[in-house]
Amino acid sequence: MNRDLLIALTEAPTIEEVWALHTDCMSGYGFDRLFYGYTRFLTPNSYGDPQDLLVLTNHNPEYATPFVQEGMVHHAPMVRWARDNEGAASWSMMEDWGRSGALTHKEKEVIAFNRQHNVTTGVTISFRSVSVRSKGAIALTGKPDMSQTDVDAVWNEHREDLLLVNNVAHLKIISLPYFGTRRQLTRRQREALEWVVDVKTTADIAQIMGLTSATIEKHLRLAREALDVETTAQAVLKASVQNQIFILETV
Asked: Cβ(173)–Cβ(38) under 8 Å?
């Protein structure tokens, strides 16, 4: 594994830069299309509010949009596997499930949709979770001319390097600010929430920031609206989860 790449990944200041580095690296191994997902709001029946999901992909929109927005992701067999397991798995597992009758009708529909878009060979990595509410995984899709045997050969030869770089990319991604599909907090909104974390009253924050209490209330209200929550306490929690407060400004 190229040490310069690992250094670049760990020093990248934005999710976009991490993703660009990672997709380029994986393409060099034959995985030209990636699909990454992460949630901190996992429940037994849901991955949380779709607006809060962190989804990254370089699949073309004709595949990625219906896969996510039409809910196919919830019925993808390897997504099911990733939710319930940790580690890596070859997509050859789906053939075994098909032969044993373990696939649902919805899962068979997803497999048929994948075939239409040449998403037929690959490896899925389910990252180790640190909370029962969090789950992250990435699907590495082989190039269209690769068979599953080809993909498995690449994986078996480079398994340790591939696991290393994918884990580094994942850990870096979840350490950076992300906003889902909601509005990004402004600098003033972030600053007001940060002082709330420090247990300052509205009057305290107004004095510290050199603003009126009414203006502070406005910033907090707009922060709640941007994060789609009802209370300031909820706003603080969600902003913290999304790494949107106490962040360094990038130039």
From this structure: yes
Which of 27, 116, 30 is CA-nearest to residue 66? Answer: 116
What's the confidence (pLDDT) of residue 251? 45
Per domain, the residue ranges of the chain are 3-173, 187-241
Q: How confident is the model at residue 182 (pLDDT cuts 50, 70, 90)?
A: low
What's this model's pTM, rounded to 2 decimal places?
Answer: 0.85
The CB density around residue 4, as the number of other CB atoms within 10 Å, is 8
Q: What is the mean pLDDT of residues 180-184?
A: 67
CATH 3.30.450.80 applies to domain 3-173:
yes
Q: What is the pLDDT of residue 50?
A: 73
- What is the pLDDT of the chain when averaged over all its residues? 92
Asked if 162 and 70 touch (Cβ cutoff 8 Å), the reply is no
Phi-psi region of 118 (alpha: psi -120 to 50; beta: other; left: phi over 0): left
Which of residues 147 and 70 earns the better pLDDT score? 147
Let me know if domain 187-241 sits in CATH 1.10.10.10.
yes
* Nearest one of 195, 206, 178, 204 to 232, comparing CA atoms: 195
End-to-end Cα spacing for the chain: 30
Q: Do 64 and 36 form a contact (C-beta atoms < 8 A)?
A: no
